[in-house]
Amino acid sequence: MLLLNATFEPLTALPARRAVVLVVCGKAEIVHGDPTGMTLHSASSDLVVPSVIRLSSYVRVPYRGQAPLTRAGLMHRDRYRCAYCGARAETIDHVVPRSRDGAHSWQNCVASCAKCNHRKADRLLGELGWRLRTTPRAPRGMHWRLLADVPEADPLWRPYLGAPAA
């Protein structure tokens, strides 16, 4: 379930249970119901399980200048593909190894398959004759962090995330 601020700015993804509690307590309102048509029934009322809810009052969100480097964020940035061969990524690799003073940063970390990570070990790309498929950089966009935690976003979320329609 997508939680929007009172200004329709996306805040986070919530479990269905938490979304229903916010709606029942009057702290949020339903913007879109669940497309699967699930309905919760109680003795006195019925409630459509929401897909998108909006808070009734505005919540100030502190500004974060740079995105923190996390495994989930890095895998999402690289789309779970190895930066060296394009296979399914399982591990994280430092392009310039930490043993050679490589930084633990968005620009030096890439998703990697176990085979390539093992073959590369603590060597530089030039020593192996390898090249990166893309240049690693910090993720951009207002809502990348929200999407990094959700494997498949509901199509009803797209207008609020600013993501292109599929």
Please give a structural write-up.
This protein is of the alpha+beta class and 166 residues long. It has helices at 16-24, 71-77, 114-120, 125-128, 144-148, 158-161; strands at 2-4, 10-13, 28-33, 39-41, 46-48, 50-55, 91-94, 109-112. The longest helix has 9 residues, at 16-24. The chain starts with a strand and ends in a 5-residue tail after the last helix. The protein is 22% helix and 20% strand.
Keywords:
DNA Binding (I), subunit A; 2 domains; 166 residues; alpha+beta; two-stranded antiparallel sheet; 4-stranded mixed beta sheet; elongated; 22% helix; single chain
Biggest beta sheet attributes: 4 strands, mixed
Helical amount: 10-25%
Q: Give helix and strand order, one letter per element, not per position.
A: EEHEEEEHEEHHHH
Give the integer mean of the pLDDT values: 84
Total number of distinct structural domains = 2
Overall geometry comes to elongated
What is the SS-derived class?
alpha+beta
Number of helices: 6
Describe the strand arrangement of the main beta sheet, using strand numbers.
2-1-6-3
**Whole-number radius of gyration?**
21 Å
Report, as a whole number of angstroms, the end-to-end distance.
Answer: 19 Å
**How many E strands?**
8
Q: How much of the polypeptide forms β-strand, as a percent range?
A: 15-25%
| Unreliable residue stretches | none
